[in-house]
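S1.2 Input.
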Amino acid sequence: MRNFALAASLMLALSPLAFTTALAAQDAPAAEAPVAAAATKAPDPVWAFETSDVPVDPGYTFGQLPNGMRYVIRQNATPAGTALVRMRIDSGALEETDSERGLSHYLEHMAFNGSKGIPEGEMIKLLEREGLAFGADTNASTGFDAITYMLNLPRNDEALLGTALMLMRETASELTISEDAVARERGVILAERRDRAGFQLRNYEDNAAFIAPGARYTERLPIGTAEVLENATAAQIRALYERTYRPANTVLVVVGDFPVPVVEAAIRERFASWAPAPAPAEPEAGPIDTSAKGLTDIHIDPALPETVTISRLSPWRDDPDTIATRRADALRSLGYAIINRRLARLARGADAPFRVASFGTGDIFEDARITSLSVSTADGEWNKGVLAAVREVNQAMTFGFTQAEVDEQLANLRTALENAAKSADTRGNNVFVGAALALAGDERVPVTPEWQLAEFERLAPEMTPQALWEAVREDAAPLEEPLIRFTGRTAPEGGEVALRSAFGEGMALAITAPVDNGPLAFAYTDFGTPGTVVSDTVEERLGIRRIVFDNGVRLNLKRTDVRKDRIAVSFALDGGDLMNTRDAPLRAYLASTLPSGGLGKHSQDEIASVLAGRSVSFDLNSSADAFTASAVTTPRDLLLQLQVLAATLTDPGYRPEGVERFRKNIDNFFNTLDSTPGRALSSASGAILSDDDPRFSLQPREAFFALDYEALRNAIGDRLAEGAIEIALAGDLDEDAAIAAVAATLGALPQREAAFNPRTENRDRSFTATRGKRVLTHKGEADQALLQWYWPTTDDSDLGETLRLDLLSRIVRLELTDRLREELGQAYSPSAGSQPSHYYPGYGVFIISASVAVDQIEPSRAALQGLIADLRKGPLDADVIERARKPYLEDYSNVLKDLSGWIGLASRAQSEPARLDRFVATPDVLRAITPEDIHQTALKYLDPDGAVAFTVVPEAAAGTAAE
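S1.3 Output.
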């Protein structure tokens, strides 16, 4: 939210050049003064780095057209052959007058509704034909201070770049904004506003009104007011368009696999003719009374978890981006990190006083700074949480930090910077786009990772406990007579008086200087004699090396340079959700909490310290047929990452605090089950669709509270000790070193089972025979309803059928957008999807979904029924199929340009080799699908009477919806 435009102009005014110029003009003879001034006057700065001593990354090209529009270009080949285009209009909701609230966002929508060069309704279709999916690759966002238009180009051909820039220019100056288009889009805007309403928005609005009553930003939410949106005219929107969409108010960013001269020439060709006009003045966000103190707010909502926030405001500081500012930021950010590390330690410990707590200071636009301590607790435990958190912060602010704490944070920061420097040449397009937009919006100078690392090393000797402590004390507003805000389901006992008393009591608790316990060392480095490779083959098509150790552990390797100095890790251990049975549907449920219980020789909190400065993750999750873990590490830390995985199997801690943390979240989960239409549906649909099969039905609250680690140990202990293991490594790796690291860790474990257990007895899953309407209720907003229909389909064993269903779902999504969003104007983001099961033979579902207004249920339902009838009537137009297929094929062509794609393929390359066959075959099978194939797929699965048609309505409307 920071904007340094004022800071830049002040720095220029105070520069030696400015003083020299002024003096020269005064000393000149009267007749010559104007000439001298004109000859020596410095031009106004165009970019923040022009008035900063922070060295800008030379890899960018910065420019400005004569009309005032600025641009940033960066050639980059990660992912190869792709590009990102962004256009930022430096005005947002704050620019609006009282009668325009919400029109900046309305205007963003109008960009997709016709211009002088693109007929209404054709822009999205044009992009889909080029392989850009609406939403994923074609989008825009409106904020308080900017509107940003986004295009993700899947190819680096110059024609597509030209199309993208043409569309951006059309958006910038050529929108038609017809009255008819405004009227048609009104329903979509109101639908989006309706969908965004709810307890979270009410909480935000209440908090903003408490912190900054009367401030402009509190009355300028980008979504706007219903009154303005319902009555907006084309003339009003056009007036805002002409006032804000100006070259001097616009920055265009292009990052990707294009030569810079090509991009620069294309930008000039498209945008040089845009008529110049001055940018509007920067609007105010405040006012904010930074002297406010001693106030209390209690906000009750049945969907909100219990949280107490203790804050003080202070004046905003105009700190331009300089080396001195960055050094000061580094000192205080590390200090805040130490305090938050202490709070995390309390949350992870036994009898934890809160679920989570945080402490920090930030800006509220350019009007104030706010220092806050936020404490989230289990219901009814707010007093306990406040006492503990306030004492912890008070102790830190009074006595400071230890050297061990500073060393831990320095290690983390140094490693992050070293990793960034080593992988600098394969940074993704999104990284460079983010830096360019930060320059445009916040005047944050983009720098090289190498400079950041060198600057850190220069500063590191000064990062002492005393320096960090002083930096935080200077930065944070003292929490004296603070603003205290409570949110939760029930009011705190004792009300405002009790809240303020708890803060005072916490400040009065005894505190002592922290004890420096020194560094910890990881206790698990020896797992026995390294394993021996007994099989080593290469899958020739994709180059994945498949290795088996003598203890049965399988390793899949893929060396690739798509990301320098990065190795993706995928780990799978036999087990997972298939271990759950009808008699014990939560048998393995706690497996994902196992890291919270730490290891036998280290608590979870100690592990965080042990792994400081290392690119290593400690986690475990449960998928359908396996317990899994994933990480992205470096060649330097690969061995430690594997040691952590091996220790997780050989010596899990099962500490009770892991279960305690899990239980603190149960009540909040159950108390919000019907807080929104989506939550109400997700909590009830599993039981309905499965005819109350306990494995797919939400179990009662008591069943979750009954779970403990003793039962988990009995359930999965043999899996940890004996279960089949498959691990995959993909990235910038030395294959011999990687094999040796696996051999010394997972390969050194006792004999494992040879294969993943099929658990055929648990692979049955049925779809209810009871079809038709099902009405559910929620306790959220009174005008929100949800239509969601499920059809049974099949599993994913047949690639052709899987792709036909997937393509059908993409076609349905396009048609839903046309019919519910564009024609009816009743749904903001309707969706469709096909979910064929990989684990349950014969099982799959096809889903269509739309959030609609309560009074529009019947028209929306009729539109859905009409769509299904049309799909079954005959083959669709080939253009619709191509607009669905082209983005799919473009996604496929780019999937192996990053580590995520490679590790996804390599993860089960031995236990499920058919996945590789399917991947290779996909494009040809997809291209061969015809309109008649889609028609037959719709006839086969989308029976109008064969769906379970959920309608989720507010409780008061349940009777009407059931009719």
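S1.4 Remarks. The chain is about 40% helix and 15% strand.
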